[in-house]
Design brief:
By secondary structure, the protein is an all-alpha fold. 80% of the residues lie in helices and 0% in strands.
């Protein structure tokens, strides 16, 4: 499932479940807000990575390659943490 599909599915599931408390809804909204922000960051990181690949393929040098890779790893880890929070909540685990 794509990230956009996951976010849409999660949003619809939240809207259908009327038995949740305001705290649970607020927490889920926080997670979804984080995921949307990370989606934008992944887009930016992907764009930067494409620029790096283009430069390297044309024989150029990329002095900030470690920074680009670090950005991608940081956002990937943040997505993993947020997805784990959603998965734990759906499985009945602690929030």
């Amino acid at each position: 499932m794509s990230l956009a599909g996951f976010l849409a599915y999660s949003g619809m599931a939240m809207a259908r479940d009327q038995s949740r408390t305001a705290v649970a809804i607020a927490t889920e909204r926080d997670v979804l807000t984080e995921l949307f922000a990370m989606r934008r960051q992944l887009g930016w990181a992907g764009s930067n990575l494409n620029q790096v690949a283009k430069t390297l393929n044309s024989g150029g040098d990329v002095p900030h390659l470690a920074d680009v890779i670090a950005d991608i790893q940081r956002v990937t880890n943040a997505v993993r943490i947020a997805a784990d929070r959603v998965a734990n909540r759906e499985a009945g685990g602690p929030s």
